[in-house]
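dumping the sequnces here before i forget
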Amino acid sequence: MRRRRRKKSTNDVELNLAAMLDMAFQLLTFFILTFRPAPTEGQLLLHLPPAQPVTKVAANPDRAGGGGPANPPPEMNALMLSVLTEPTGEVATLKFGTSVLFHGPANKNALARLDNRLKETLASPTSPFDQVTLQVGPKLRYAELMKIVDVCLKQQLPDGKPLTKISFVELPSGVDL
Amino acid sequence: MSASMSHEASAEPNLTPMLDMVFQLVTFFMLVINFKGAAMDLSLKLPVVGSARPLDAKGKEELLVLNIDHEGQLKVYGEPKADVKGYIAEEARSFVDSAKRKNSNFQTGDALPTIVVIRADQATPFELLNKIIKTCQDQGFRDFALKAMNRAEG
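..and the predicted 3d for all of it:
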């Protein structure tokens, strides 16, 4: 028995793991240094068809209901929202079609009013609209735009589908609708 | 006698458990590594929108990530792109080729089955953002994902 043990111990092969450990530590160091946890970002998914030319309205004012660019022709099925901006990039005025919905910044109360008005208009079974066109002042900050887009994307169409079609039109600077 | 004593004195630590642990850590970091994160410009301050949801590609696997800073500068993988139209047109061509390979019925001019992911700074003026969106629309992109944070950070 003693002899066997001695023989076994002399035949033992001991791998030198130090080199492999070095390599593994190098890999570990690389991954730790390049590790960047992904930020918890969300997104608003939009289907953006190309904007319709609003100049059509001026060419045919009778069909547009006598308004300016805020009234699209009925066949467009687009509800027009116009956002006029302060020089600082805040919302100055929001127009729902041709009527002013609110003046001042897009705070919670103002956005709740927009939400209610959109619900009344879009969810109605007789609603002709299937998309929203946002006429936006050039200086409007992205954060402010997202607040309005967010309210629009919460809306449902009469068939129960969520509203996803939104198009953007840039208003000329200094325009007063 | 002296030989056996020297053998007992030599200390050889068993490195196997340490190696196991290190390999487990390496495996962990390999699994959580995020190559898509390289496409994001983390210096941008995204707007905060409560209803923003994590990206749902809806079967569209291809994404075009565009980072736009507050001056309207387009950045891709950290590099500013001076020729925005040229860059987007080039990307659109490659997506058209890819779409044609996957779907033989796809024709040039059809809406591209790609989502344009827009990561814009919250202070970016609409006029600068709209230029880039229009350029994308002209090239056939129709689906856009506007990135935002679910809640304010810090």
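Chain A touches chain B through 49 residues (CB under 8 Å).
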